What we know:
This protein has 22 helices and 33 strands. By secondary structure, it is an alpha+beta fold.
Amino acid sequence: MIPxxxxxxxxxxxxxxxxxxxxxxxxxxxxxxxxxxxxxGTVRNEMRGVVVVLExxxxxxxxxxxxxxxxxxxxxxxxEIECETTIAQGHRGFTILPSQIxxxxxxxxxxxxxxxxxxxxxxxxxxxxxxxxxxxxxTDCGPRYSVLRDMPYDRERTSMDRFTMCDACFAEYxxxxxxxxxxxxxxxxxxxxxxWFSSGNLISESRDAITLAVDSILSGGILALKGLGGYQLxxxxxxxxxxxxxxxxxxxxxxxxxxxxxxxxxASELTSLSRTEQRAFISPAxxxxxxxxxxxxxxxxxxxxxxxxxxxxxxxxxxxxxLLDRCDRPLVVTSGNLEGDPIVYRNEDAEHPLSExxxxxLHHDRDIVRPIDDxxxxxxxxxxxxxxxxxxxxxxxxxxxxxxxxxAVGGHQKVSLAVSNGGQSILGPHIGDLASNDYRLRFDQxxxxxxxxxxxxxxxxxxxxxxDYFSTRWAxxxxxxxxxxxxxxxxxVSGMLENGWxxxxxxxxxxxxxxxxxxxxxxxxxxLLSTTKDFEHIGSLRAFSLLGGEAAIHEPYxxxxxxxHASVDCDLDEVTDVCGLRDGHLSFDPSLLKLSRWSPxxxxxxxxxxxxxxxxxxxxxxxxxxxxxxxxxxxxDRDEQGAYPFVVVxxxxxxxxxxxxxxxxxxxxRGPNCQATRPLTPSPSPRSTGERGARNxxxxxxxxxxEIDWRPMIRALYEDRKRGVHTSKIAxxxxxxxxxxxxxxxxxxxxxxxxxxxxxxxxxxxxELVDSYTAKLSxxxxxxxxxxPNDGGLSIGQLAIAAARRRTSSHPTPxxxxxxxxxx
Length: 824
């Protein structure tokens, strides 16, 4: 209890804080402010949130609310504060009470945060008692979700419970004036976790362990380090041989590797950071930020082969910072696993799978309860877009309440889970692709753990419509009722949820690699009119053949041939020669075209990118999902103003391209078969009056079908290829043309808000082009940014759809309690 000088206790209020209010030093902050204002009362964690009881003068309590609400905005994400008058109990002083663990969880689970600047300064200060201590943390940083066994978030429910604080640490923990007041991960070298180095029969502890680890890295070796959420593989990012060896051993041929740097100043030597990128880079979440690398750096070329972007991050823990300080160079820091397997996180499991990769291991004895990868973000314009939602960002809570507990299981790639216990809905951490048995076991493990953590016994499991996804089969083998959700509807609703448009009907454009549709076509470039409950499919990209079926995904030259065959009237030998599709080991068999009648059709924008990249770059064979599109984006010449012509067709009505034509090498020549016509402005669709985009009446079904025809684009691109136009110009003209086509579709529906989602919208050039074109239209465009636009956001979209379909028409009786929102 914190003693407070007696005050006139004429008034009492109870405040209930819901949202991300545990694990950020909220209770200590409340206690300090109450002490300053001489208010009596209590604060404690409960399953519903943080509950505060204040007794004192009415004016002082009002001051407390105003000042604390303002302070919240700088600490956590949006918080709901519920205020109610209560009866004064005559509290003397202010007390942080033990947590209450009854009931279902109504507050957000705290996320892991990278080491803060204050802790880094202490760790680097020889005069500080935490000098070079690898587990330095405070209320502003350190492990939370990864060490958490159960909620509420208290030390005894984390893996820190085995470490009893020494007198010095306990004094910090109990002092309201200390930065570590009620810091659940508080410890030091006298009482906290320890590290040790292992290599064969050599085991060394403490500072010798760091020395041996540093020597291993500087001599070109590979180190396996137990990080915040699991093991990581480290090597010298400036040593080409070491990076190449890491790739071979990890079996990761070309997928980019993340690089950790000591500071933002060191990052600035490798890339030019915009203000938005700086904000993402130094954020407490500490994600990997995808940045455009400078042309001349000391980084090994094989860190990001044939791609201009590099993923940079700051030290996650003091242990990482110590290694960076001693090595004095950037380090590759990638997940501790073989490609296709989940991250390793237990000491006893690490050395067997990773012994063929790493020559040394840096272990520690703080258990990781919940493994979690590093988050990945990319800045597009002024938006920070989540590519992989994991450490520092998840579990991600949404104010989406349901009448029952639900579990949504996502798709097949970039899988994450979403749960609702009735009081709150959660997007769980990134798991991965469910191709391997180990990932499927991790999927099953996380499903059970999330249900347990949030007190969720699902009455319904929501899954993708694709019958062959493991997640679909897993759901159907349970004894719980299941509901299938169309892939692209889930993408669009995830964007509606993020933008607060759950009660609207929107125009949704979903572009990705693969989605199971409602017909025999593999979808991936779809146009929908969508509500949260249902959708109307109104258009797509023009369909094309996947020659050889799934083989076309791994051999995109098959897609290139199909696109060219459908668009260009010339000899096949000429096509393959011009486009370099006979280079190297490839000898294209013309008889493959005979397979087209039996090959599946697709409207996939992702496959269109693959095929066009193959036409532009020759015979490329992707080693990971999205590699062709990433290489094609990397080729773009941002100064190129030309655009290839796509034709947007509504039923039998052709809509002109907004582009004045692509600027050819001979000066402003339009693409072949593309005639300039007057832009069409159609009559608005029937809609209700009121707020823009809101739908309160039944809309007449859309008449007709929209098709985005890529054949004029292919013809123009092919002509440029024959004339030897530089690939960088070709790549940019393609991106600009697709952005214009998307804008044309948006213009056809002036009365609708617009949601753009799907993995294709991870492409920075495409997003920024669409953003610039639609800005001129004064339209409300909803992007997925907090929620990943790729399949990592599918599950929360599935959950939102299931919740909307279950929602009854009855409304709860309005509460007499006052609600205040902390706008963050």
